[in-house]
Amino acid sequence: MIKKILLSGGVVLILAFAPKTEKIWQSELLKIGTSGKLEYIPDEKGNILPDFSRVGYHHGDRQIPDVPVVRSVSPQPKGNSDQVIQKAIDEVAKMPLNNNGFRGAILLKKGTYKISGSIKILSSGIVLRGEGDGENGTRLIASGSSQRPLIEVTGSGNLVEVPGTRVRVTDPYLAVGTKTLNVESASQYKVGDEVVLFRKGMANWINDIKMNAIVTRPGTLQWQPEDFDLHFERKITEIKGNTIVLDNPVMMQMEQKYGGASIYKASFEGRIREVGIENILCESAYTHDTDEEHSWTGILFNKIENGWVRNITAKHFVYAGVSLNEAAKNITVRDSKCLDAKSVITGARRYSFNNNGQQNLFMNLETTQGRHDFVTGARTLGPNVFYNGKSTKTHADIGPHHRWAVGTLYDNIVTDGEINVQDRGNWGSGHGWAGVTQVLWNCTVKRAAIQSPWVSGTNYSIGTIGEKHKGRFAERPDGFWENPNKKGLHPQSLYMTQYQDRQNR
Q: Polar residues composition bias: which ranges (predicted)?
């Protein structure tokens, strides 16, 4: 640091000072050992901070590719461009998949494209690529007054259980962070099987987290057991006798008194793969700042795995720049912005980057004028990660929004608003406990309320810079807080360190 001091006669004395450095500290839950490997410190029940590294496109094991162009489209001098773009997509959809699962990329040449409806990608292996997300790049403008997504990427079908494959997990307690479980019989399973780790919704569990006693107001719904059957998608990586190892860890405590757990083989016919959207400016045309009769979502993904959105700017949409529905899995959304939503500032609007799916990664993102900028919905099952995001001029809070999201990491998120993990009570139609195993790591906020539910797990605030506040209900159990307002947390990023640690093993 250089400091200039003005002396008599106009002489400037230049003094040099060593820059102030923050004292480095490590969490009591996770350390970098002398070998350079991560070491996890379990609690008295064996729970650890889970590994969040296996998220995003192919779990982060493959780089997003630059797929060769097979079609090019130019802006139409008059009228809308829906048909010419959709025609190119439909033509590429008829091409065979190559050995890497791609048909090819469609290049939208720079210029302005008016889109009166929705551009739809319904087949695997297609990349929609522009020539830049700035004003002089490729601009897709959702024209007209219909409430729809500008770009919709979706497959078909649903996740289904393979009949006769369900077996009970015999462990009396599955700790958060474990990938190993014991089953009654593993004889019908093999390494590589796609499975679901299943936890049934139980009435005694809802009673113990007091979600059958939400203070009512018009429209409040008490939680029902059948609404909380949780289906965590996983893959088997190892089998030894009746012991099964999964690719991703358990994300919430599973106890026999709350029904325990089971696994079953799963299939998802119709789910598409290897679709990307990149290098495009998406805009929604509007008539005034509270107009809602225009496009609500820039890019919508559902019923797809191993896809991506990158280098996208979304402007003026009512609901979201990018929204991943519950059947979107292993999607990477990165290096993108969602700016200046145009809508009434109220519920169910301005969810800038919204995730309802599993094993998804949102990184290097920026938002302005949102409400819930980096957000998950009901029963969003992790691991999921929001890493390196910046939110300004926000109108609400970041975090799990309602009804028990499980296993989300908020890593190096900076906001001029709040990040909250709490019992939201009768907000909405009975949001209740927003989530469990929600981890804030090295975040900077105006203020944060991090509380833990009465049973089934913990929420964490580690190295959060900003005011700690009491949340909606001050009497709820506090979460795990470690060194609030103390800079120097090492490692700086939990996600990046876990990812690098996995790659080096």
A: 494-505
